[in-house]
Amino acid sequence: MSEPQSFPIEKIHVPEKKRKALKPEIVEDIAESILDIGQREAILVRREKDHFVLVEGLHRLEACKALGERAILGVLISAEAARQRELPPPPVDPEREKMERLRKLRLEKEAAEKLAAPSRAATATDAPTRQREYPEKTIRSKLSTTSKQSRPSQGSTPRTLSDWIKQQERSGGRY
Fold first, then answer.
1. CA 16, CA 31: separation in Å to the nearest integer?
2. How many CB atoms lie within 10 A of CB 86?
3. What separation in angstroms does the CA of 112 have from each of 98, 109, 125, 130?
4. CB of 73 closer than 8 Å to CB of 6
5. Side-chain half-sphere CA neighbours of 127 within 13 A
6. Calpha distance 1→170 (Å, rounded)
7. Are strands 51-56 and 43-48 parallel, antiparallel or unpaired?
8. Are 43 and 57 a contacting pair, CB within 8 Å?
9. Measured between alpha carbons, how far is 158 from 24 in angstroms, rounded to an integer?
10. Are 27 and 66 in contact (CB under 8 A)?
11. How far apart are CA 74 and CA 7, in angstroms?
12. Span 68-84, pLDDT tens digits
């Protein structure tokens, strides 16, 4: 890009398509800003025969016009560069986005599994060792200890409420 230079406002043509995007409230805000601090950002124009065509900066151009300016700060760009700026971005393919999200999730899941695999392997190989070293801390020993302590002295632990009632009746207990 070249250096900003002064362009006569009356020689700048605004394409109809761009003119439709004009918002008066934005022009007003920019005009106030230009009055306060001056024009900070240059517009972009391209040369066409005996005039210039606005590429970017519609609201800045209109604000300068509203302020009665005769010239505006701008940068002259090539027709090719202008076409590149005017091309709409490629359409977003929802199917492609979906596939990309799924790929990302799959990669995250694989990474999490890789991190978890060594700890699972260590846990599986350490379990027998821990049972030998600390038999009182194993789940099985806790269950057997607890169940022996809470078992009634007669018969086995009832599995259902009806079995419990029958057991209580046989032992003469009240419920």
1. 22
2. 13
3. 21, 5, 20, 26
4. yes
5. 9
6. 101
7. antiparallel
8. yes
9. 84
10. yes
11. 6
12. 999 999 999 887 877 77
Please name the amino acid found at residue 77. Answer: I
The separation between CA 35 and the C-alpha centre of its own chain, rounded to angstroms, equals 39
Query: DSSP character for 123?
Result: H
CB 73 within 8 A of CB 8: no
Amino acid at 123: T
Dist. CA 149–CA 131, nearest whole Å? 21
Q: How far is CA 76 from the centre of its chain?
A: 37
DSSP run (H or E) holding 11? none
Tokens 């806790």 — which residue?
142
- Which pLDDT tens digit goes with each residue over 97-121? 888 999 999 999 999 988 887 766 6
Amino acid 175 reads Y
Cα-based distances in Å from 47 to 7, 12, 14: 11, 9, 12
Note whether 6 and 39 are within 8 A (CB).
no
